[in-house]
Amino acid sequence: MFKKWAVIVSLVFTTLSPSAFGYQQGELLSSKAQQELGLNPNELTIIDFFAQWCVSCREELPEVETLSRQLAGRGVSIVGVDVDEEVEVGLAFQRELGLTFRVVADPQQVLVTDFQPTGMPALYYVYQGKVLKVRFGAINNIRQVIIDDIRSLDLAE
Predict the structure, then answer these.
(1) In the prediction, which pLDDT does 27 show?
(2) Which molecular function GO terms apply here (predicted)?
(3) What is the pTM of this model?
(4) Distance from the first to the final alpha carbon of the chain
(5) pLDDT at 64 exceeding the cut of 90
(6) How much is the average pLDDT of 5-33?
(7) Three-state secondary structure readout of 123-146
């Protein structure tokens, strides 16, 4: 009996494509996701998934906010996706942190289901609808990491 289940589990995992686990580097976002996020195809957009309950998000978002102001008008934008199920909780969290970059509320979990990030916070670097880079989880000195990531990206892809 154990062998039978082991074979079934093995088959399931070997037949799943990487895209079954959410957007990966090199993949195109669905047109619906691009529209929901209001992406400008002619600029690099960093999509930042976060929530009020995420301790690491609370630590990183002030650095992301500072960076968003520094990047204004330079062809790079940051769009937050607040996955809190209660919109008012998310809005209060954004006010508490003083976020000024554009944030899309996702209380119905539509975007988070589409992207399927494997941790929070989650960053997706998107240019012309294509995912160029993905980062999950807490990252020390996130502002500098993002700056280095931007410098390393080939936007001619």
Answers:
(1) 93
(2) antioxidant activity; disulfide oxidoreductase activity
(3) 0.84
(4) 49
(5) yes
(6) 61
(7) EEEEECCEEEEEEECCCCCHHHHH
Contact at 8 Å (CB) between 97 and 60? Answer: no
To which H or E segment does residue 58 belong?
helix 55-71
Question: Which residue from 44, 47, 46, 104 is spatially nearest to 74, judged by alpha carbons?
Answer: 44
Tell me the domains of the chain and their CATH numbers. Answer: 22-152 (3.40.30.10)
Tokens standing for residue 83: 């996955």
* Across 10-14, 22-26, 116-120, least confident range: 10-14
CA distance 138 to 113: 20
Hey, is 147 helix, strand or coil? helix
The one-letter code for the residue type at 53 is: W
